[in-house]
Structure formats: structure tokens, C-alpha cells
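New to this. Explain these C-alpha cells.
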Amino acid sequence: MKTQSIKIAFSISNISKVMLFEWLSNSLYKEYEPVFIIYNNKPTEIEEYLKRNNKKVYRINYSSKKDIPICILKTIRIFRREKIQIIHAHLFEASLISLMAAKLSGIKKRVYTRHHSSYHHDYYPKAVKYDRLNNVLATDIIAIGSKVKNILIEKERVSLSKIHTVYHGFDLSSFSNVNELEIEQLKLKYNLHNHFPIVGVVSRYTSLKGIDYIIGGFKQLLLEYPNAKLVLANALGNDEDAIKRQLQELNPNNYIEIVYERNMPALYKCMNIFVHVPVNSEVEAFGQVYIEAMAASIPCVVTVSGIANEYIIDNENAAVVDYKNAEDIFNKICLILKNKDFETKIITNAMKDVYERFTLERMIFDLDKIYTE
């Protein structure tokens, strides 16, 4: 006799591409029948991907908080039409809308993944009340690392029984096994030939990510390596004007800004060194770029933030630098460039560590336990 499938809805909001959802849509255990709900005001790449792969997906128009009431009503209709048994929400607005709709629909298993840690407490305290509402509406909250878990417990007084720690899972092989032709195409596209080293950054333009210190360290690097090139991906954000002014001090031939590149695995493979230096230990709730770069076998110069607190060890799997320290960034880049044994050591250890902790299979197993308990 065929076992009846479990109808589960995944919701996301205000994001264009989500590799995690691409992987998740193809990797759930066969007993689940997923439905995807996207809150956005235009078609997105993740929506098109899901449709191309014959996944059931709904898009509900969302532009601002004034749309929340009608979004809740439309979501309730979807839940009833699809006979949803479990909701798993991701990101702030999607959680607020779909958890409320699920509560009103009588859905008993209401899960949300908390993707931010202290951001609202530090910068938007008026939004904390909505975080608390999500905490009340959810039956289960997924913390993506210890920093997020601590915020939930210590600052928002969430019961420990509600909280589950589940690391993001990655299709790690997609970063390690990249077609050489795709790498060559990106090197040509971004004029990376005849440059060494290629120093890569994947980070929004915000002061919290420490990009100004990377640029400062890179200026020093150019004195020793005049053909170095700085690759800045995801090059947009609240502080882009200040960062662009700082970049104007460099020769345009020594840097390139990339607002969006779909083939991130190939872009990582174009880099000789990856640098990610958030300005404190809590800026990142998770920090998936640590794992992506390590899975691509790129030696990393980093500060410890988010998930890095739980597995990155200086001189073992990365070169760790002090917060807000351009000189330290320069020195650690040079250490990697001039010491092949050190480079090989941190690459090898990093690959081992990410495969132990951040596989897609491990995440799916952990989620299944939450869904079925």
C-alpha cells in the first residue's frame, strides 16, 4: 500500500536566487510533497527554477508591510487548497505572513528558520516585537548556529524546547567539481587573466562586512604584487557610495565589481585567496560564504563571525585576522602566497571540516526529525 505523502509548504520572501531551495527541492525524502510560496513583487530566478523543475510554486505579491493582511488571506487559501500539514518559513516577512496564516488555518507543525541573530536588537529595535511574534507563532524554531540560539534564549526568552540547531546544508560537490570551461569563461568575462593574485570577496556593500579594511589591505598588497586584482561580488548595498569612493583610489585595472553572478562555484574557482572579514563575532547569523569558499578549495583569510565561531581555527583551516585590521589582512594574504605548505594545510583541513558539518544530507536528516517528531 502506498504511504500517503506529507504536504509541506516552504515560504521565502524578497530574495531572487536561493541555492538552498534549489537543493532542498530535489533532496527531500520521498514521503514529502513540497509546495513553495514566494512573497515578492516580480518573478525571480528561484521561481523560474522551481517551475522548470516541475515543482508546485505560488508567488504572492508583496511590496511592503501594508501588503501583509492580504498576503495572509491568500496564503490561507493556498494552505487549504493544498491541504498543507507542515509550514517551514524562511526570512523575516515570509515567516511573519506564513506562520500567522498557518496558525489561523490550524496547521499544527509550524517551523521557521531564524536567519538573523542580533540585527534587529542592534539596529532596528522596533522590529524585535515581530521577531517575538514569530517566536510565539512557531511550534519549532531552527537556529542556524549557536549565536542565533543564544539570542533566542537570552534576549527573546524563547523556551529551549522550541529551539533546534540545524546548520545550513550545501551541495558541496557543486563548489569543488566545477567545469574548467566555465571557469575560463568567467576569467575572460571579468578580465582576470594576467593578474595574480586574484583576491576574492563575496559580500554586500555594508560597513558591517569590513570591506573598507579589505581595500586597505589590498592597497598594501599592490606594492608587492602590482598585477593583483580585487574581485568584489554582490557589489551593492547601503554603504556602496563610501566603498566606491575608496575604490577610486585604486587603478581600475586592479579591481572589478560584480553585482550579480549566477555561477558562483566557478567564480570562487577564479580566486587565489578569499577574504571575508565581518567587523564583529555577531554580524553574521551564519555566513555561508565561509563554507562555499572552503568547499571550492580556496584558502581563506577571515575574521570569526557567525558559524565561523563554531569551527574555524586560526592556522588550521583558515588564516584568522583581527577585526577591523587592514594590516593584518595584508600580512595573512602574504603568508598564504609565500608559504605553499601553509596554503595546502589550511585548504585540506577546511575541506575536511566542511564535509563533516555542512552536507546537504545531514541537514535533510535533521529537518526530517523536526518535521516528524
In short: The chain is about 45% helix and 15% strand. The CA atoms of residues 319 and 332 lie 6 Å apart.
